[in-house]
């Protein structure tokens, strides 16, 4: 891919990201993206990405790579410090790389609201699950969390892991929507920014408790029923 093509592709991608975050995936058309990106060729977006699904998949790849890299770095830091078996530290690895997209007013500022939309969307929810090449950090994290909670069945660890991710995305997205005012400034207000650390710490506390919560007899009974049914 030459430099001009890459520049055009990135321009379209970033334009779509902002429009999706501000107006919602379903309210933005390929044509609107093309016009907002200043493309004279009316089929430029279709040429580079095909459909809206292809555009979202490309966006996930674009943003997940640095987030995944940060997770791997944090896991290495925990290992060097000998604290990789601390559940709270592992939850920080889950939360912080995502929260930093808002806290640092970084390049992925608009990404979090889009993920929150995708994970609950009937047409697009599987996109996030299939970006496996940029999910090595999450995969390692899941293995370590399992080791920390040997008394909780694997199926429930997986369930709680999915719940935790959705909760983090939704809470951060709500915070950005309520305080970020992207249509005016494109970053968090100073007052909102000062409250971000409290939100992040609260998320870590809640998600840590969620992972380690006792399993009720009713849940174990239902899990056993479903296991026997699928055997």
3D architecture notes:
By secondary structure, the chain is mainly α. The protein folds into 2 domains: 50 residues, Arc Repressor Mutant, subunit A (Orthogonal Bundle), CATH 1.10.10; 155 residues. The protein contains 11 helices and no strands. The longest helix has 30 residues. It starts with a helix and ends with a helix.
Write the layout of secondary structure elements.
Elements: H1 3-23, H2 30-36, H3 44-49, H4 52-81, H5 87-103, H6 111-119, H7 126-129, H8 136-148, H9 154-180, H10 190-212, H11 217-230
Name the average pLDDT.
Answer: 87
Distance between the termini: 49 Å
Q: Care to count the β-strands?
A: 0
Query: Level of helix content?
Result: over 70%
Low-confidence stretches: 181-186
What is the overall number of helices?
Answer: 11
Q: Could you state the oligomeric state of the chains shown?
A: single chain
Query: What structural class do you assign from the helix and strand content?
Result: mainly alpha
| Overall tally of structural domains | 2
Question: Using only CA atoms, what is the Rg?
Answer: 19 Å
Order of helices and strands: HHHHHHHHHHH
Strand content: under 5%
Shape: globular
Q: Main sheet, how many strands, which sense, barrel?
A: none
């Amino acid at each position: 891919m030459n430099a001009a093509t890459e520049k055009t592709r990135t321009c379209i991608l970033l334009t779509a990201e902002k429009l999706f975050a501000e107006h919602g995936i379903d309210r933005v058309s390929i044509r609107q993206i093309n016009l907002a990106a200043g493309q004279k060729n009316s089929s430029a977006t279709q040429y580079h990405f095909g459909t809206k699904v292809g555009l979202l998949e490309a966006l996930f790849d674009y943003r997940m790579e640095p987030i995944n890299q940060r997770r791997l770095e944090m896991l290495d830091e925990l290992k060097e410090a000998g604290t990789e078996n601390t559940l709270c530290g592992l939850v920080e690895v889950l939360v912080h790389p995502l929260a930093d997209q808002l806290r640092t007013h970084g390049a992925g500022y608009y990404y979090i609201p889009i993920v929150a939309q995708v994970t609950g969307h009937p047409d697009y929810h599987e996109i996030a699950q299939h970006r496996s090449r940029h999910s090595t950090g999450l995969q390692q994290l899941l293995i370590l969390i399992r080791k920390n909670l040997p008394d909780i069945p694997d199926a429930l660890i997986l369930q709680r892991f999915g719940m935790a991710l959705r909760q983090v995305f939704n809470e951060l997205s709500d915070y950005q929507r309520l305080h970020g005012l992207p249509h005016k400034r494109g970053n968090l207000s100073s007052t909102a920014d000062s409250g971000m650390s409290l939100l992040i710490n609260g998320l870590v506390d809640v998600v840590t408790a969620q992972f380690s919560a006792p399993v009720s007899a009713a849940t174990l009974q239902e899990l056993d029923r479903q296991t026997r049914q699928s055997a």
